[in-house]
Every structure is written in structure tokens, then in C-alpha cells.
Amino acid sequence: MKQVPNLFTLLNLFFGCIAIVYIMQTNSGIMTIDETTGSSIVVFPERMAFGALFIFFAAAVDFLDGFFARMLKASTDKGKQLDSLSDVVSFGVAPGMILYQLLRLGYAEGTTGLETSFALLLPAFIFTCAVAWRLAKFNVSTNQTDSFLGVPSPAAGLVVASFPLIIWYEYFGLQRYFINPWLLYAVIVLLSFLMVCNRTFLAIKFKDFSFKNNLLKYILIAISLILLVSMQWFAIPVIFVLYLIFSAFSKVPPPIVNSNNEKTLDVTV
User: Fold this and answer.
1) How far apart (Å, rounded) are the C-alpha atoms in residues 86 and 176?
2) 90 - beta bridge partners?
3) pLDDT score of 76
4) Are 124 and 136 in contact (CB under 8 A)?
5) CB neighbour list of residue 155: distance below 8 Å, 6 or more residues apart
6) pTM passes above 0.90
7) Residue 174 sits in a domain of what CATH number?
8) What is the pLDDT of residue 264?
9) Longest Cα separation, the chain
10) In terms of residue numbers, what domain contains 192?
11) What pLDDT, in 10s, does the model give residues 210-253?
12) Domain for residue 54, yes or no?
């Protein structure tokens, strides 16, 4: 039973690998020719949306590994390191690949089409590097239970993972904005900064279930559920913005970073 949390952690990694396959091997080109006008049309690959779904599956099992670790009292240093390694793939590499592909799609709509310089696509992996930095910082922290130092990497990864699903389902006619290169660059910079900064953010964890001690968390969860029902995948970035706002109003002490690099045993990142 002690290995159950680690099996869920490996499932997180497994789903992250599947996500990368779908994101990169779309089985279709990103441009086609309109037979009537002879002009080129950018086509959004369906499989990128499938890949995004597997990132959400990874997030679900990432929650479960921490839940079972605490329930079974099976938190270990090895489990923590395994969790961070898996999160780098599922919430760092896979979303980075999504950003890379979305930048390709955005530039494909321009006058130069697919002749865009490779260098213009590389900023996508700044996000991946920021996730690795965030997780390394978490690993040397002595207390990130009541609050997080920097935005958690799964939260940032899910924001990016929502983009292909928003585009695929064409919510509110905003799909073109999510392949705009300048907007994507802004998202990369913002999310990367929020992950590596030393600001304190709310941790959605419960030591008890009293309303007095968890009022902001209950309000955020209730609003999030309403938004998910009414706005579906488009709710994810909206909920993320609300999370930032609620964190600004939360009064929780900042986590402590251990300068001696001693490891904590909490496995939820």
C-alpha cells in the first residue's frame, strides 16, 4: 500500500507522455488550400485538443497521489522527487509543446506562412524552464501547505492546456486570439514570472473544514464550479485570474525556503 501514491505519480508521468505524442504528432498539416479561392487556410489539429485533455488527466492523478500519500501516511522523499520529475513533463514539457504549436499556427496565418524563423517559436520553452525552476524551489521549501511561493506549476500548466480546447470548441468566437503570437508571448512571460516569483499564493488544501478558516477557499471553489458549468473550458483561465485575486486577499504566512537544501516530505506540488 505504501507504493500506491507512487503509482499514481507514475500515471501522471504516463499521461504527460501521451499528451506530448498527441500535441506533436497531429496526423494532419496545419495549412490547407481553399479550392475555390486558391488561398491557404490554417487548420487547427484535432489531436492537440486530445493532448490537452491528457494534461487534465495528469492533473487529476497528481491530486490523487498527494491525497493517498497523506491518507496512507506514505509520504517519502523519493515520492516527492518522483512527483516533481513527473510534473516537469506533464505541466512543463507538454504545455511548452502546446505553446510551440500555437505559435506555429499563429505565424502560419501571417504573410510568411510556415517560413517563420524557428527562433520565434523557442520562447515557448521559457515556460518549461520556469516550471522546472518552480519545482526545484518547492523541493527545498520547508513549508508550502498553507500557501505557495509562486504559482503552482499544475495551475499554470492547466491554463495553457485549456487553450487548444477553447480553440477547438470555438467558445465565444475568441479562438483567433489564442493563436495570436503577441498574446502567447505575453502569456509565457506572465505565467513564467508568476511561477518563479517570491509572492505568496493561496494553497487549496484543508487542515480542517470550518468556514472560519477556509472561507476564501470555499467561495473560490463555489464560483469555480459555477463557471465550469456555464463556461466549460473557457472557465479555466477565468478561474486562474480569480485564484490570483483571492490569493492577493488571503492572509497566510509565506512559506519558508530552506537554505540548507533539506527536503520536505509533502508530495503535493
Assistant:
1) 32
2) none
3) 72
4) no
5) 240, 243
6) no
7) 1.20.120
8) 36
9) 67
10) 4-141+150-197
11) 667 678 888 999 999 999 999 999 999 999 999 999 988 876 66
12) yes
Nearest CA-CA partner of 242 in 221, 267, 263, 259: 221
**By 3-state DSSP, what share of the chain in percent is helix, strand and coil, each rounded to 5?**
65, 5, 30
Residue 234 near residue 166 (C-beta atoms within 8 A): yes
Q: What is the spatial distance between Cα 34 and Cα 32, in angstroms, rounded to a whole number?
A: 7
Residue 52 domain-assigned (yes or no): yes
Give yes or no for a contact between 43 and 117, defined as CB atoms under 8 angstroms apart: no
Name the E strands within the chain. 31-33, 40-42, 147-149, 200-202
Tell me: the pLDDT tens digits for 126-140?
Answer: 999 999 999 998 888
Q: Please tell me the total count of domains within the chain.
A: 1
Nine-digit cell at 87?
A: 510534473
- The C-alpha cell that represents 245 in the structure block: 485575486
Write out the three cell numbers for 174: 475568441
Closest CA to 42 of 97, 106, 100: 106
Q: Both ends of the chain: CA-CA distance in Å? A: 21
Place of cell 459555477: 226
Q: Which three cell numbers stand for residue 203?
A: 494553497
Q: Which residues have CB under 8 Å from 151's CB, separation 6+?
A: 134, 191, 194, 195, 201, 244
Position 137: which residue type?
Answer: K
